[in-house]
Amino acid sequence: MRATTATRAGCVHRGMGQTTPFSGRGSRNAAEDDPRPNILQLNTEGLTDNKISVIGQLPCKNKAFIIVIQETHCKTADKLIIHNFSLAGSVLSRNHGLATFIHERLEWSLVDQSPDKSETEWLCVDVAVYKIVNVCKPPRSRLTPTTIPMFPHPSLYVGDFNCQHVNWGYNTTSPDGESLDSWATSNNLGLLYNPKDTASFFSRRWNVVTHPDLALASFGQDSRLSDRRVLGKFPRSQHRPSLMTPPIFKVPAHSDPVKQFSQR
After folding, report:
1. What are the backbone angles phi and psi of residue 166, rounded to the nearest 5°?
2. Closest CA to 84 of 69, 103, 100, 68
3. Which of 114, 128, 133, 178 sits at 20 to 30 Å (Cα–Cα) from 146?
4. In a domain, 223, yes or no
């Protein structure tokens, strides 16, 4: 895998029988304001009211229009509320859990998400021509070539992968790290990683820094126009948030077929 510095219709929430809207329509199109919507990623290690309040301040500071969160530890969607953002989809779980939020000014649709009781959780949302895939793989789960599905280009896989590989800052490569690297390479995904950037995780138990939070993109040569950077510390989480800026992809304009006339 190269490193670049820089479907089920009507999906439901996983748990408590609550459903989430299949799609949402904002008041304005993304391209009217920013053709490259910034994406904020964070493993919260359990959402609380205080953490939600802090997360609500980050989009304004970083001009983020998409928020992907791992380890919400939420059995219901009651806490999954961020001002000016719509909850595009969630996987509800007491031990793990995911949530993807889209700014109310953007159009989006929920594409698919991991089946019930999957060890590795994922959630795909289509927004601003991109497929944004929120991923959380617990440390003890095993990664296989079919764990995470491939979605059409342009797509961005972002989240807590818990896979060790020398390509993204670890001293050794684990079997899961090798599996992730092989999967990304076979699907032509590029790693958005800068070795000079701050590590996204600090282990209080072992007093070491690592890089479990990753971003993999199908942007090809356009990946060099992408950017990912790790932000400052987040309260009561060992993870730091990351901010991704994807390259610009223009949506082909629709045009009516040209009538052909034969000359006689």
Report:
1. -65, -20
2. 103
3. 128
4. yes
